[in-house]
Write a structure and sequence with these properties.
By secondary structure, the protein is an all-alpha fold. The chain is 66% helix and 0% strand.
């Protein structure tokens, strides 16, 4: 146990240090430095023009630029593309950072750019506290399900090291994993609360909620008490749906911009790029809807038959397939989203072949960011050894080696998903006596 805690803290600290602002690039590679918390969200809003598309109310940012330490509200004062629980953590970290930043104590020497650079560093340090905590909790949960060795293997996966403090996905995964363990113990109220918080962190884990809902609904239809389903759904609504409703009521413009941002996003490292090469083609979203709808039908069948007394399929295993499908079949598959999958795969899948394929997929997801900013250099190198490629910076296009790596990852995950569900369907046709 002590070893696991120590390794978790070392991995979390290493990940945080790699992405820490104002620290030199790891091995000179900007892809190992970049993170969404600072470079993807904070800098575009606070170091950009106050009149940019992000700001609804420019008065707070102008006040800060004059040396006043006020706290702008996400969704209200500026556009924020992350769910409510992340918005709350974001507000806390940015507000504390603005208030405690030592820079600007002398108003006569106040420079807004220098101030925001200093705030960004403090904001990042505060932000990684819940991320490293979630990393530790996730490793302990994996240990409780499987073994300390499995937890350490998960901690040492390249994507775990790189992405744990890159974005907020580890919080979402940790809450969902804890929810599943509570569900196994029939503590449905707590399970719903935890899973709702996960959905309020990133909506992808609604796929797990779907599987658990179908399971409890079938139990109800089979004659069991309805209290279990009611407890689960009421607590799920309280922490999963209500935060979104509150944002809709209190900041409707921010809410709909949040929805529009995600519903109109391009094919980011998505599976369908091998079929439709234009990343902005809306057909990617259509294919994602069709694929996930088919997955929902198959999962419902698997829950109905696979969790019966005559089979060996566990609800946690089906939940694992649901999150693999939700992420891999989506039209947005940012490299850090692999963290939404890896804890469940390590904890609940037993097939050695599937685990080996998953490790390769995890490594591929790591190399997406490793090579992302080196795309032009990589193209030039491949040209020099006889692979004809246009030398330019375009890591989003299907002709990019970065997308070749993403495609390998996506196909491997699709194979893990398909093989796993096929195994479930075989158990349905030939149940264990």
């Amino acid at each position: 146990m002590c070893t696991l805690i120590l390794v978790s803290l070392i991995v979390g600290t290493l990940s945080a240090y790699m992405h820490l602002p104002q620290v030199s690039l790891p091995v000179g590679n900007p892809g190992l430095k970049y993170n969404d918390i600072v470079y993807g969200v904070f800098y575009p809003r606070f170091l950009g023009s106050p009149n940019s598309r992000y700001w609804y109310n420019v008065e707070p940012i102008y006040s800060i630029s004059r040396g006043e330490k006020v706290c702008p509200l996400p969704y209200v004062d500026y556009m924020f593309e992350y769910p409510p629980l992340i918005a709350l953590l974001w507000y806390i970290s940015t507000c504390i950072s603005i208030k405690i930043s030592p820079y600007g104590s002398d108003p006569g020497e106040f420079d807004p750019t220098t101030f925001f650079i200093d705030v960004a560093k403090i904001h990042y340090i505060i932000s990684v506290i819940p991320l490293i905590t979630s990393l530790l909790v996730t490793s302990l949960l994996i240990y409780s399900v499987k073994s300390v060795e499995a937890a350490i293997i998960w901690l040492l996966l390249p994507s775990t090291i790189l992405y744990s403090t890159y974005n907020w996905d580890i919080i979402c995964a940790s809450l969902a994993l804890a929810s599943l363990l509570m569900f196994q113990k029939r503590r449905y109220l707590i399970s719903g609360l935890l899973l709702g918080l996960s959905i309020a962190t990133k909506i992808m884990t609604v796929s797990i909620a779907y599987v658990l809902f179908v399971y409890l609904l079938l139990n109800l239809l089979g004659g069991k008490r309805g209290r279990e389903l009611l407890s689960f759904l009421s607590s799920l609504f309280l922490t999963g749906a209500l935060p979104y409703i509150i944002v809709l009521i209190t900041a409707p413009r921010g809410f709909w911009d949040f929805i529009s941002h995600h519903s109109s996003w391009y094919c980011e490292n998505c599976l369908y790029l091998i079929l439709i090469h234009n990343v902005f083609d809306p057909a990617h979203r259509l294919l994602a809807v069709l694929a996930t709808s088919l997955l929902a039908v198959v999962l419902a069948m698997a829950v109905y038959y696979g969790t019966s007394k005559s089979s060996k399929v566990e609800i946690c295993e089906l939940s694992t397939y649901s999150i693999i499908g939700a992420v891999a079949l989506n039209y947005v598959f940012s490299p850090q989203m692999i963290l939404l999958i890896s804890p469940f795969v390590v904890a609940f899948l037993s097939s050695r072949l599937s685990l080996k394929m998953y490790v390769i997929a995890d490594i591929a997801s790591f190399f997406i960011m490793f090579f992302f900013f080196l795309d032009e250099d990589l193209r030039a190198f491949l040209n020099s050894i006889g692979i004809p490629l246009e030398v330019k910076f375009n890591p989003w296009g299907i002709d990019s080696p970065v997308q070749w790596i993403a495609t390998i990852r996506n196909i491997l995950l699709l194979v893990v998903l398909t093989v796993g569900l096929a195994r479930t369907l075989r158990l349905i046709r030939h149940p264990v006596k």
